[in-house]
Amino acid sequence: MEKIKESLPDWGGQHHRLRGVLAAAMFASCLWGALIFTLHVALRLLLSYHGWLLEPHGGMSSPTKTWLALVRIFSGRHPMLFSYQRSLPRQPVPSVQDTVRKYLESVRPVLSDEDFDWTAGLAQEFLKLQASLLQWYLQLKSWWASNYVSDWWEEFVYLRSRNSLMVNSNYYMMDFLYVTPTPVQAARAGNAVHALLLYRHRLDRQEILPTLLMGMRPLCSAQYEKIFNTTRIPGVHRDHIRHLRDSRHVAVFHRGRFFRVGTHSQSRLLSPRALEQQFQRILDDSSPACPHEEHLAALTAAPRDTWAQVRRSLKTQAQEALEAVEGAAFFVSLDSEPAGLTREDPAASLDAYAHALLAGRGHDRWFDKSFSLVVFSNGKLGLSVEHSWADCPISGHMWEFTLATECFQLGYSADGHCKGHPDPSLPQPQRLHWDLPDKIHLSISLALRAAKTLSGNIDCHVFPFSHFGKSFIKRCHLSSDSFIQTALQLAHFRDRGQFCLTYESTMTRLFLEGRTETVRSCTREACNFVRAMEDKEKTDAQCLALFRLAVDKHQALLKAAMSGQGVDRHLFALYIVSQFLHLQSPFLDQVHSEQWQLATSQIPVQQIHLFDVHNYPDYVSSGGGFGPADDHGYGVSYMFMGDDVITFHISSKKSSTRTDSRRLGQRIQDALLDVATLFPEGQHLKRRGLGEEDSG
After folding, report:
1. How does DSSP classify residue 410?
2. 43-47, 441-445, 506-510 — which is least confidently predicted?
3. Which among 45, 446, 519, 671 could bridge 491 via Cys, Cβ 3.0 to 4.6 Å?
């Protein structure tokens, strides 16, 4: 402080005390800044440690306990949603030699000897000629970019894709499986919209707690920023994401008409009962849809180039209505048909429910919006989510909060309406009017025809597997996800008679702006297990030993992918660099052209404290699903509902003669039971199957 005082100008004796105060303030500011900087650096170094991932299941070593204690100390007492962002490490660029080695190991089970030798030759040529240069550019980018791959992943996988968003770039989330809190459509919409906007309010104030993996390692929260007020705007060559700071209305679609419904009155959020009143007014409105207005939203399901060109005319002729939809907090579709599980035909009703959420009728969802809330006539809910802005765990977190809040906290009166009183002073919902030029009419008709064709080609199958669940797998001392993934290999082999490249999505949010990485689940160990299960001469003990090896291998791959040491995002980034440099690489071209005939994903339950699964086991979301990644492949997602139920969502294309979603569903059930009977805890379930005749 004396040194600082000496550097200050001398204002005379009467200001000597002022110089002391200024010196103390400057010293305290510097000390505080240095302390904050030190805390950030220390926390970033601590969060760069991934040794905790390698801990055995259910155990924790002394170094990891020490690390966890230090993380908690440096994190502060009450971290907010974005508190950790500046301290998260950047995603590392793996060694190119390691990546190529892992890639060759992953494709070995699905290639013949001749094809593998040819691929290995391309890989060696790549390592000799192009790898070092491309890796150098990638390392250079990793030094200045927040994440070396996420921005390219968003742009080249999503925004530059010219395919329809419907089925190809959206996924869905379901309501409670066995219960519907109210059959009143407007009431369910009122509570759900209010709960969603409560979530947005908490999000704006950063009152949502940051997600901690295994209760100790914070994940990146960047994707939460674009949940609301976000629209994917089509472009001729590239789309872009438009995000508004705020929006005080939702766009509503009902029987071919569009409405603008305000969500606030005098800067306060409307009550659930007031929102119900507004939605009921729309349901009671008998005015017909204008010509071609009913099918207008089919344009958002059209190829992106087509929609971009038509949107230019639409923006000129109907700018106010278009802005009301694209500038809404989110989109609400009040469907005229019921959905959900029925006692008369449970299997067909669940399949139709999934199909309605994934594709609808092709013209009743605005697929550009970040998400659309779908409310069916019997009060059932669902969510259709556009994929480019964030991944499933983000929308899943919001959906868990929404279901828990609208059902348990807001609740309903005895007659099924929202609690509270209507507000007759509210103005009527604003009907949006579209001045559609004649040249757009043909575009709408063509888009509708294509959307109906695509929608009609999707084969969805949903089923709850209730023979056992997470608690049984835990008693076997195995990872739940690895258990399911290995069983899926057995089911798929029985379905197709061969192995294939398998895509399992896992997150890389341990790093700043991380998104996803691929776990290549079809490993040599998994194939050995499957062959043993189909070999009548193998004993249960031999099969069980091979199953444990397959599970251990999958766990190793999963942890490597989560810690930034996966294969596919690194190879993808190298491919993008090669395209920028106009550098031809047969090896990278081959990797880029691979088809995933089995795409899988687990939907995690992130806020189990919001649901009382023991006393109210039916009040848990039944997960969601997505379309197949290949015309002759399957999309499979699964969710652990409480401790004893697993819900599976399967999709495929009816145009393929090789796939059948219900057939694979039966194979999955048989495979799970056959695997469970290998364990002493599962002997009561079923005898181990031995292939086609038994599993059928």
Report:
1. I
2. 43-47
3. 671
Question: What pLDDT, on a 0 to 100 scale, did the predictor assign at position 71?
Answer: 82
* Three-state DSSP class for residue 634: strand
Residue at 514: amino acid letter: G
Alpha-carbon gap, residue 126 to 571, rounded angstroms: 12
Please state whether 267 falls in left (phi above 0), alpha (psi between -120 and 50) or beta: left
- Across residues 608-615, what is the average pLDDT? 79
Tell me: pLDDT of 694 over 60: no
684: tokens are 């009561």
Half-sphere exposure of 454 (CA within 13 A, CB side): 24
Label residue 250 exposed, middle or buried (CB < 10 Å: 0-12, 13-18, 19+).
buried
Catalytic site residue 78?
A: no
How far apart CA 258 and CA 318 sit, in angstroms, is: 13
| Cβ-contact 322, 297 below 8 angstroms | no
Looking up tokens 């966890």 gives 68
Which DSSP state fits 209?
Answer: P
- Please report, to the nearest 10 degrees, the dihedral formed by the alpha carbons of residues 562, 151, 248, 169 taken in order: -80
User: CA nearest 245: which of 366, 146, 327?
Assistant: 327
Q: Kindly report, residue by residue over 88-114, the tens digit of the pLDDT.
A: 999 999 999 999 999 999 999 999 999
- Taking alpha carbons only, the member of 185, 448, 213, 471 closest to residue 333 is 185
Query: Which listed residue (387, 417, 461, 554) is catalytic?
Result: 387
Alpha helices in 457-517 (DSSP H): 470-475, 480-496
Cβ atoms within 10 Å, residue 296: 27
Percent of the chain residues topping a pLDDT of 70: 96
Check whether 690 has a pLDDT greater than 50: no
DSSP labels, 651-687? EEETT-SS--HHHHHHHHHHHHHHHHTTSGGGTTT-P
Cβ(195)–Cβ(401) below 8 Å = yes
d(CA 613, CA 400): 13
Q: Are strands 598-602 and 502-507 parallel, antiparallel or unpaired?
A: parallel
Q: In the block, which residue shows the tokens 């000799």?
A: 128
Of 506, 486, 520, give the one whose Cα is nearest residue 564. Answer: 506
pLDDT for residue 15: 62
Percent of the chain having pLDDT more than 90? 78
Q: In angstroms, rounded to a whole number, what is the distance separating the alpha carbons of residues 303 and 446?
A: 11
Task: Measure Cα distances from 667 to 461, 487, 535, 611 in Å.
Answer: 13, 10, 17, 31
User: Which H or E element spans position 268?
Assistant: strand 268-269
Strand arrangement, sheet containing 170-174: 430-431, 257-262, 249-254, 331-334, 371-375, 381-386, 170-174, 624-626
Three-class SS state of 238 = coil
Q: Are 328 and 251 in contact (CB under 8 A)?
A: yes
Nearest Cα neighbor of 656 from 447, 489, 496, 499 is 496
Query: What would the two tokens of residue 665 be?
Result: 């569903």
Closest CA to 625 of 390, 452, 400, 458: 458
Helix axes 346-358, 661-676, angle to 10 degrees: 120
Query: What's the pTM?
Result: 0.92
Residue appearing with tokens 């391309």: 122
The pair of structure tokens assigned to 175 is 């309501």
CA dist 316 to 290, 291, 298, 321, 339, Å?
A: 18, 18, 19, 11, 37
